[in-house]
Amino acid sequence: MVKVKMFDAKEANNSPRKAAEVPVVDANAFYAVLESRRSVRIFTQDPVPEDTMRRCMEAALKAPTSSNLQTWEIHWVRSSEKKRLLIEACLGQPAAATAQELVVFVARPDLWKRNNGWMLDHLQSSPETPGKALQYFKQITRIVYTQGPWSLFRPFKWIWFTLRGIKKPTPREPIHAGQMRIWAHKTTALAAQNFMLAARAEGFDSCPMEGLDSYRVKRLLGLPRTAGISMAISVGKRAEGGVYGSRFRFDSSHFIHEH
Amino acid sequence: MVKVKMFDAKEANNSPRKAAEVPVVDANAFYAVLESRRSVRIFTQDPVPEDTMRRCMEAALKAPTSSNLQTWEIHWVRSSEKKRLLIEACLGQPAAATAQELVVFVARPDLWKRNNGWMLDHLQSSPETPGKALQYFKQITRIVYTQGPWSLFRPFKWIWFTLRGIKKPTPREPIHAGQMRIWAHKTTALAAQNFMLAARAEGFDSCPMEGLDSYRVKRLLGLPRTAGISMAISVGKRAEGGVYGSRFRFDSSHFIHEH
Questions:
Q1: Do A27 and B202 touch (CB under 8 A)?
Q2: Which residues in chain B are closer than 8 Å to A196, comparing Cβ atoms?
């Protein structure tokens, strides 16, 4: 979600743009995966192969991520003792208790600076990196994501963005630690959805769980207070009666608005 | 992500559980979609059929959603005047300026109570609804998601959850409006990822954009201050040069941790 202009859109809109070659894909096969993904709360005893788990986790990390800063983590809890503790922290719910595998998706807003440094290392290692890309990770991300200790820069950022915003479009967030958390949680959830769909594509099922004791989960995973538990996700094969009723959504006219 | 126990996991773990019938799916076809999804920043002039857009939006709304409360919205900006304003609010970036279609994913933590009422209406309309499901939407969601005006209940919830948490696993969030925002943004991002993958499956491409003026976007869409702009997403056909470089992720060993 890089914002630097590397292209003059107005200029290009005057001449037709050539289509790029893109792999041919099968929409029906994709929708079969998406439609059959349900939150499964009772799993069979069939194990999930390690390879499957690894492919699903790698698929998760191919989600788009804000400024490519990858402020996400996946914690795969494999030891039976830690699994027992994680099931407890998930309030013992059957989706956790009957799961064959359990992972925890974690948002790491606190690691944006480390990752920004890695991005710079990566970009600087190639002579073909456009100057604007370098500038983005040298200046823009630092202005946007630095909030100061205890979000001390908040009032200054607010005044600056608000005054600038009177005359021209100006990003308003993030200007404090709470908004940094939202920012990292969004990116992490995009990855989590990739993971759940990949599990379904592999013939397995999943259940995302937010009803958990985040304090205990952080202690179990050795995570600092600044990390955010996005959700635990269980994986396994769907058991009979494992889906509680048919999918129910309110009429989409409540959610899809046209302007 | 319902937490009510409708099933005794310990009991069931003693007897093998029968697998449910699940549609057969094609993992390779799914991965072809996932792998070819890239953030596309320059689109061709080819239009996106209205049907395609509707299928992608419906696919979005099939993502899992916390407590099934569906605190999400998709705003599809179709009029050319509003599109012009939205492109401006997206800072004129090419991914917006060259997009054929533009949607905005919006988190609506402020609408949880309305949707909880709808869930109750739905459940109460069927005589087969288990009592625990009714109890969940009558009591548990109300305890969990009610924060009081200006999050006044925060200190009480904090003390209650912290004391209870000493002895037994206890959810720690959400206890204030900021955590309600995180909660709704997570659910909305899950839907956004479905949308982007569906667009790819349909032969189109997308770009999620968070670098935008949320104040102007809310004004444009007639949204209250309490709504949260998750991201704008552009849709179109990938133009030559529309992807800025090959996909770059740091080594996954930084993000995948085993316990």
A1: yes
A2: 64
With beta carbons under 8 A apart, name residues in chain B contacting A20. Answer: 238-243
Across the interface, do A189 and B185 touch by the CB < 8 Å criterion?
Answer: yes
Instruction: Name the closest residue on chain A to residue B73, using Cα atoms.
Output: A255
Please state the pTM of the whole predicted model. 0.94
- Residues in chain B within 8 Å Cβ distance of A201: 25-27, 30-31
Confidence at residue A2, expressed as pLDDT on a 0 to 100 scale: 43
Two structure tokens written together for B154: 């925060």
Tell me which residues of chain A have a pLDDT lower than 50: 1-6
Report the gap between the CA of A110 and the closest CA in chain B (Å): 14
Q: Which residue in chain A is spatially nearest to B89 when comparing CA positions? A: A169
Which chain B residues have a beta carbon less than 8 Å from that of A30? 29-30, 33, 197-198, 201
State mean pLDDT over B2-24.
67
More confident residue, A14 or B256: B256
- Read off the tokens for B136: 């969940």
**How many CB atoms are closer than 10 A to CB B174?**
24
Per-residue DSSP letter, B227: S
Closest by CA position to B7, among listed A98, A86, A210: A98
Inspect the interface and report whether the beta carbons of A29 and B34 lie closer than 8 Å: no
Q: pLDDT-derived band of residue B9, with 50, 70 and 90 as boundaries?
A: low
The confidence band for B5, taking pLDDT boundaries of 50, 70 and 90, is very low
Q: How many CB atoms lie within 10 A of CB A245?
A: 12
Cβ-defined contact of B12 to A94 (cutoff 8 Å)? yes
Which residue, chain included where needed, has tokens 């600044």? A226
3-class SS of residue A11: helix
ipTM value for the complex: 0.94
Q: What is the pLDDT of residue A87?
A: 97
* Cis peptide bond N-terminal to A224, omega within 30: no
Contacts of B181 (CB under 8 A, 6+ apart): A178, A182, B107, B109, B228
* Pairwise CA distance, residues A150 & A2, whole Å: 27
Percent helix / strand / coil, chain A, rounded to 5: 50, 15, 40
CB-CB: which of B45, B73, B97 is closest to A255?
B73
Band of the pLDDT at B16, cuts 50, 70, 90? confident
| Residue A37 to residue B62: CA distance in whole angstroms | 9
From A12, A196, A213, residue closest to B172, measured CB to CB: A213
CB-count burial class (<10 Å; 0-12, 13-18, 19+) for A163: exposed
Are A45 and B213 in contact (CB < 8 Å)?
Answer: no
For A31, nearest residue in chain B (alpha carbons) = B198
Contact, B212 vs A171, CB < 8 A? yes
Question: How confident is the model at residue B4, as a pLDDT?
Answer: 44
